[in-house]
Amino acid sequence: MEKRATFSNRWLAAALIAPQMLLVFVFFYWPSGEALYWAFTLERAFGGGNEWVGLYNFENVFNDPKYWSSVRISLLFAVAATTLSLVIAMLLALFVDRRLPGHKVYKFTFFLPYALAAPAVGLAFRFIFSPDAGFVSAINRFFPGLWNPALDGFDAMLLIVLAQAWSLVGYNFIFFLAGLQSIPRTMGEAGAMDGAGVLRRMWDLQLPLITPTLFFLIVINITDSFVNSFGIVDITTGGGPARATDLMVYKIYTDGFQGKDYSLAAAQSIVLMVLIVALTFVQFRYIERRVHYN
To answer: Considering Cα of 241, then 243, then 245, then 249, what sign does the dihedral take?
Structure first.
């Protein structure tokens, strides 16, 4: 029989959950409601309140070629950063799972990047990959102009992809390692006795058994790439050069806080939220079919 915790005093239960409910309301429902209100209204030029304009802001969003460019860039960024982060994290987890010398130190070291805030990661990568002072500058001495994120859009996109992937490797690593360690050792030993090599055992035994973990991480990484990449972009490239790294989340910031068009930015935030929900639905609808839970 399932046991449940009960409170004889309902006021005590309410007092315990009140701080969490207050945080959720203040930092989620209230801003979401304000964004929804701003998306369908337009502030008068000289103040005096807002005017209801219906879908006017959304029409401006969808008729803006720069916005569609940011959508394409965001999708490319999310797929590239997610793929790179998952592949690296999977390889690191496989190495640690084999209990190589120093594997306990690796567990702590590999998780460290996730403890850093996005602006700190962006600042570190900006200095490390600086064409003038970073280690890449040595390469630029022999091949002038080979690497310059300030002028080359491809270099700038590669820079933020590397930074985003690096920041998520530790998070993915922990989940992959937990999934691998939950697999009975006898299965790997049986595969080795049958003559299967390390890569074959990984592909045929380990990877199918951790597909629930892999699916979870795909959803989390793609969502994080859309909503938590602002700090990296703002510090490293500022959306440039020539809007080559102007992600959707960064365009919301530039239009709202630099361009002072809060209604347009609010409409873009609503579109971004709908896009994330749609991508998550597609992943659960089609990718989850390949997940083995038993």
So the answer is: positive
What is the pTM for the complete model shown? 0.87
- Tens digit of each residue's pLDDT (9 = 90 or more) over 68-99: 999 999 999 999 999 999 999 998 888 887 76
| Cα distance between residue 294 and residue 185, in whole Å | 17
| 149 within 8 A of 130, measured Cβ to Cβ | no
Distance CA 88, CA 144 (A): 30
Other CB atoms closer than 10 Å to residue 37's CB: what's the count? Answer: 13
CA separation for the pair 218, 210 (Å, rounded):
12
- Measured on CA atoms in the order 34, 39, 44, 49, is the torsion positive or negative? negative
CB 114 within 8 A of CB 170: yes
Model pLDDT, residue 22: 94
Asked whether the beta carbons of 241 and 153 are under 8 A apart, the reply is yes
* Cβ–Cβ under 8 Å, residues 76 and 89: no
Of 176, 158, 185, which is closest to residue 217 (Cα–Cα)? Answer: 176
pLDDT for 225: 93
Counting residues of the chain whose pLDDT is more than 90, the rounded percentage is 39
Stated as kind and residue range, the H or E segment containing 132 is none
